[in-house]
Amino acid sequence: MLTFMASVFRRLAITSGGSGPLQNHMKTLTAGIKTFPEPPDYSGVVLPEKLKLKFIKKVPNFKKATKEMKNLKCIRGPAVKANSFTRGQYGIVAMGGGFLHWGHFEMMRLTINRKIDSETTFARWGVNAPDKPITRKGLGKRMGGGKGEIDHYVTPVRCGRIIVELGGHVEFQEVEPVLTEVVKKLPFPAKVVSRESLAAMKQEEQELELNNQNPWTFKRIVSTNMLGIRKVLSPYDLKYQGKYSGKFRIPGRV
């Protein structure tokens, strides 16, 4: 129909000398039709029964709470479990180690549950409830007298751990502002990722290691003990090949 009307107006414009209101109408009618991308397919996404983040207890159900040392090795190095998506499509991945206490869990739960659509989007935890006791002595108390009493509980997190997962009939642009707001309030560096971006990050690390043209890698220098370097290296440097400095990941280290 549009093609027929455009041809009619073109003939009228030619007979009228190629100027006038008919010429303007001809330009409007012959404009191209816009093309839009196809909508995403959510046929393979199954929504669970409980869509919102569940409440996390402040104190675990221990028969008898036992005191522990700091044991900072629980936040060093890469995460060996829960470092990939299980059911969600988007989430927050830790880029460094640290501890999450009950206040952080409540902040994430309230922020996400209030700002997501509970009919089309679901959220689930990727970390366990706080179970590591942290002791503290009273203000102004003298040194000595044994270990202090348990003050609160925390959850240790390593680099690469998935903190929260989101999914459902929703796109990344809809949940990114909510997750970014949560990332800014976490006690360690973190990043908002999707399934595709997380897979791309892991693929980039593998390609960086395979395509490395520098023969003097950290592993080769340590294995040959050049200049007696093992004297100044810790067991964690030998275990993780110098890719981690304390609880932080060194980017670009091969």
From TrEMBL:
Keyword list, A-Z: Ribonucleoprotein, Ribosomal protein
List the PANTHER family hit by this protein, alphabetically.
50S/60S RIBOSOMAL PROTEIN L16 (PTHR12220), LARGE RIBOSOMAL SUBUNIT PROTEIN UL16M (PTHR12220:SF13)
Give the matching SUPFAM superfamilies.
Ribosomal protein L16p/L10e
Q: What is this protein called?
A: Large ribosomal subunit protein uL16m
Asked if the keyword rRNA-binding belongs to this entry, the reply reads no
Organism equals: Polypterus senegalus
What family is it from? Belongs to the universal ribosomal protein uL16 family.
* InterPro entries in the cross-refs: Ribosomal_uL16, Ribosomal_uL16_bact-type, Ribosomal_uL16_dom, Ribosomal_uL16_sf
- Entry superkingdom: Eukaryota
